[in-house]
């Protein structure tokens, strides 16, 4: 009786997720059933298979899905997906830009949250201007926990539609697009309430898994067959132990860091399994995976293990790393202001380590965030950008510039001045920097 109940629960949960395929189509019942069948079969196959450890994680992940399929946004498009190895695709991504402090902003309510951190409403002209400037990839940081409308993790359909609108503008411009879960890492080292996001601790694992599985199930429903290889899913932003001394660095001697890495591994495997279970183009979609903090140092730790794809292939997975390197030049205030060979050596050595550890092993790598904060040292920053992009491009690692809109220096405070693109005028605050980036890609 216990086994029968468990099996029944699995099937009902999976059929509920599969029903999302037909939730908003308005077509005849016969047509709806025909559309739902492939996804239903794929999910049931994932549950019944016992050939790999990944399949066991799939059944656990999909059982968690319970969002309201009646209001969820459904992708009704159809595009041919050109399957290529991730290592080849990321080379085509070349250079990117982050729509920072916008859809990831967490103040305000509803759609108003987009401007709650001081950035203007995103427009098509803004995206067109980026494409015209040579930007090939748009990374769109997105926060979701403030846009959940019920206790079943259902995302406000208006929010999902807003995300789709901006994604579509960039896709129409021929750009690659990266979407993720961004500022949903719970900000306290404490018991996390349900619906509050995720936190990679033992205490918060169950609520975290419920959150990420339901959010990604809805993203996968809204973005599937209507999007080809130009759309990339990045599972998480900078997963970390917020509110602890190990928030921004991985301590290999700490049991807390080790446990966090293990919980992150399980969360990322669950997300990948949910994405693949949605079938269609998402069975082939490139998926980017960060380590703790998305730092290169934690990615290189022996405890960081990439999730297993359904066929154990590495060809659809990307290692996502953030590099404000070296910290003393690129982020710290005041830190180091002048560019030098010793500054250069820090990032050239890191690129080599990432290449030797991941690319040589068959994994693609991209730098999801990078930049050098404005210290009123334009000449030094231009030199840094020239060398940084030249080095990364040689290894086939595209870099996506972090932009939070803050560029004016006041009172010699230099931290977090990563404003580069004037979103309202579609111009660049520092034309020499975007020129340096483009010159190294020729």
Automatic annotation (TrEMBL):
Pfam families: Cellulase
GO molecular function: beta-glucosidase activity
Signal peptide, first to last residue: 1-18
Keyword set includes Lipoprotein: no
Any one GO BP annotation for this protein: cellulose catabolic process
Keywords in alphabetical order: Carbohydrate metabolism, Cellulose degradation, Glycosidase, Hydrolase, Polysaccharide degradation, Signal
Domain Glycoside hydrolase family: 113-405
Gene Ontology cellular component terms for the protein in this record: cell surface; extracellular region
Similarity remark: Belongs to the glycosyl hydrolase 5 (cellulase A) family.
PANTHER family in the record: ENDOGLUCANASE, PUTATIVE (AFU_ORTHOLOGUE AFUA_5G01830)-RELATED, GLUCAN ENDO-1,6-BETA-GLUCOSIDASE B
Protein name per its UniProtKB record: Endoglucanase
